Amino acid sequence: MAVNLEKGSTVSLSKENAGLTKVVVGLGWNPSETPGVDFDLDASAFLLNDNGRVSSDGDFVFYGNKFSSDGAVEGAEDDLTGGSSDGDDEEINVDLTKVSAQVNRIAFTATIHEATSRGQNFGQVSDAYIRVVDASNGSEILRYDLSGDFARNDAVHFGELVRNGNTWDFRAVGEGKSNGLFGLCREFGVNVG
Fold first, then answer.
1. pLDDT at 123
2. pLDDT digits (tens, 9 = 90+) for 58-82
3. CA angle at residue 97 from 47 to 61, to 5 degrees?
4. What stretches of 41-166 adopt beta strand conformation (E)?
């Protein structure tokens, strides 16, 4: 049975899932119903070191870079509309056995593509969630349903995998951010010029 998390809570992935090596991190959402308006959210992952920053730009996985430099994280196929099915809108695959030793957290985020020019924000998104699934059998391990007022935000830090010695935990973050993907890149140390 999957664990439902609240903001700020942490759960051990290996406690109930002995031998867990590969996970799928699924993100889902439903955009507001505005006819003729595209609403494109993008999932990204940042592989972070002890300083909370990427060690190189290869530790940033998004629609323009599908694989982390260590080969542990594979980015999502870009869903241009969101809410198109009952399942995840975008999924990121993580092989926990391949994560570089210098990485102690993997942050999962979502941003709204061209949010400023389209006048869009996360206040116009409903039913947003992040979940972790055991890739070996498809069973959902945990789920965090995002709630809160994100009307001023065009990016959200959903949650993160956290290395705990030889095991991994998941922490529900649910923190709204500004300045979209550019702002997240600057925060996590990606070279954006």
1. 86
2. 999 999 899 999 999 999 776 555 5
3. 30
4. 41-48, 60-61, 73-74, 90-95, 105-112, 125-134, 140-145, 155-164
Residue 83: the pLDDT is 52
- pTM over 0.90, yes/no: yes
Q: Please tell me the distance from the alpha carbon of residue 87 to that of residue 84, in angstroms, as a whole number.
A: 8
Q: How many structural domains comprise the chain? A: 1
Judge whether residue 154 has pLDDT over 80: yes
The answer to the question of residue 139 being in a domain is yes
Q: Which residue has the tokens 């070279």?
A: 191
CATH of residue 117's domain is: 2.60.60.30
Q: For residues 15, 173, 3 and 108, what is the CA-based torsion angle, rounded to 10 degrees?
A: -80
- Other beta carbons within 10 angstroms of residue 130's beta carbon come to 29
Asked whether residue 46 carries a pLDDT value surpassing 90, the answer given is yes
Q: Is 192 among the domain residues?
A: no
Backbone CA torsion sign across 156, 173, 14, 133: negative
Mean pLDDT of 145-171: 91
What residue numbers bound the domain in which 42 lies?
Answer: 3-187
Instruction: Using alpha carbons, select from 106, 107, 101, 117 the residue that is nearest to residue 175.
Output: 107
The C-alpha atoms of residue 135 and residue 25 are separated, in whole angstroms, by 9
